[in-house]
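Figure 2 data, in text form.
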Amino acid sequence: MAVPLKIDFVSDVSCPWCVIGLRSLEAALSKIGDAVAADIHFQPFELNPDMAPEGEDVGEHIARKYGSSAAQVTQNQEMIRTRGADLGFDFRFAKRGRIYNTFDAHRLLHWAEGSGRQKALKEALFAAYFTEGRDPSSREVLAEVAGKVGLDAERARQILASGEYADEVRAREQLYLRSGIHAVPAVILNERYLVQGGQPVEVFERAIRKAVEDGA
């Protein structure tokens, strides 16, 4: 019988390492197979909660925030692109010109959790931003992406036009900040084991097997 495994995946839709972390996690779960019944919950984290509505140029943002040169940014992007390709994800950094606020995206993800389509929405938002170069702060883009994964696009527009789920998202963000999560992805297994960063598949597999062994 499959052992249940709760996974809290703390991340932001504008974080490329979160894409890699999710793909590595999924690959690890696939390798383990039917021995584990994973229940994944995507939890909110904003890399740039104070970002202006118009966003910021990616190169300028990374240089200001991390002190990276243009050459370093290009090198890092190529490393991420290669890692993503190995895991079946298509990063197209030339299309991603700006960094945006992601709070509304997290509100929609919170709503989608109740319908069983949270994971589909998360993956679609990753693709919209990192592959298609679309604006994840645009409410029309968010509603359209929600509709494409089987959610009610009109209901999504209603949520985005209101303050629905804002308090719930902020409360969850604060919960993880108070727990010491200050970088993402942060993957928490059975509320006990933490895997930090876009780790290789093997790291996730070992952590999952350990969590299952201790929880069995």
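Caption note: The two ends are 11 Å apart (CA to CA).
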